[in-house]
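anyone else get weird line breaks when pasting these?? whatever heres mine. first is seq + tokens for prot A
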Amino acid sequence: MRSPRSARLCPICKTNLDSNSFARTHRNARVTPEGEIFYADAAPILQQAETAILTAKRAAQGKVGRLSIGFIGSATLSFLPDLIRRYKLQYPNVKLALHDLYPVEMDKACDSGEIDIAITRPLSLERTKNRESRVLLRDPLIAVLPRSRKVKSKKIRLADLSNERFILFHRQGAPGVFDTIVGACRSQGFSPRVEGEPNSMQTILSLVEAEEGIAIVPASIGNLRSHGVRFVRLIPDLYLDLIVAWRPGEPSIVLRTFLDFLSANADAIRAKAELALSSIARIKSLSIWMLNAKAICCAIRGQPQLGLCCFISTTARMSSALGPFGPDVRRRFGEKSLRYFRLLMAW
């Protein structure tokens, strides 16, 4: 029988070597000393060729390669970390380069080829001519007010903010965001008095907390932390899309695979974004938990009717604060609270 080493060398040696690298008998073939020397040099080359063939096949499936992604950090905080983690689990041999950029910076990076795809805000009319894009999710615009500001309802009319000082994200970095907000104000009959244009969403929250003015921002920044502000839904409802954009033409295999991955996870992305929007419920969060504590105390003191009234009020306030968002949060909160209340009643 022919050994594996002989089997791999025979075709090459017959074609390319004049010397006899095998000692043959009527039953088998044995590698000669000359063949051993040849095999020591040829084996790594053969292995590299086999690896290259396998890599080429995987690259054709979008499983190997490089992908550069631009994104807006504050707008993608609710879903991007988990999305990237799951993508890397599914495509571990695709090397990712992630760039946190302003929309204007992403436009330039996409033009130069520095990034392959951008998770950004809607493109200008001029940019739409040389970009492919699709909507990833709709991001509501909300008002940010100092916590000291008393709010009588869960929503506030945009027109009622006409006399306020506005702090808006700087137009140079995100002209689409700035122009959308200013255009919405003008549609309500006033031009906003812009007192500041920070280049950071976190700075906007800090300035509102310092009572330097109010802000209108995409609801996705509710994931950022600031204990001295409250988020309030606007009347009428206003939205600012979050899109993915890439250069026109036939995308690379890796980019096409990533786009397919986004489509497959579109529902999960929107669900995570809506779940994050439950942070708007912080408007009444303190009173909600105080009412829940009061319901428990009433149950312990043997006042079930009063406790039940407090519980119903708590659930109603939570539901109203969440509005159309976070139905899963509403359901889980109500079920868990009711279960605790029943246990206390039985006790």
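and prot B, same format (seq, then tokens)
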Amino acid sequence: MPKYNIEVPLSGSIFFFNVEAPSQGEAIDLCRGKLAHEEQKRPLWSKTMISEQTPQPPKPQQERKPRGAKPVIDWAKWDKVIGEWPDNKIAKQAGCSATAVRKRRISLGRAAVISKPRVKWSQWDNQLGKTYDSKLAEKIGCDSSTVTDRRLSLGIPAYFIRKIDWSKWDKRLGTEPDSDLARKIGCDTSSVRNRRIKLERGN
């Protein structure tokens, strides 16, 4: 007796059977009868396995933000610090880009904050008060207010040119090196040299 491979659709599934029957039509009837009498049983497998699975409710679709959506910024909260804080610091806290902060700052007519360089004062503290703050600031590469603030924090008085009573020293100008005389007077060498040249004394 011939064997037939039969596919029987039922309840959204397709069941496969390999049965012996005189004809294909009888093989199909045999398979349908078997399914009808054995409703509690399931075939070994099916194409979709829908009948073997418990129907699951559809998953709710997550709402996706459109690409390129810009965050809404409450500028009333940040306007008071724009121009006082660096743009990137405000951007980080506000949750936006530094470009957005920059555009807002420009619209408010405010200048950008220039961050001050970090100074290694251990290299410069011994020069505070020994020259003008502005000159020392040029050497360090910062503004003079930074040097002034540091000097005041250490209680060091500002540098000033001492008024020299030259009547005590004029007779010695040109008799010894300018640097030696400047050390005795307590001034810089240039002050002695300028005074000597003014009085046309020898070197």
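btw re prot B: The chain has four domains: 3-50, 75-107, 121-153, 166-198. Helices lie at 24-37, 75-78, 87-94, 98-107, 133-140, 144-153, 178-185, 189-198.
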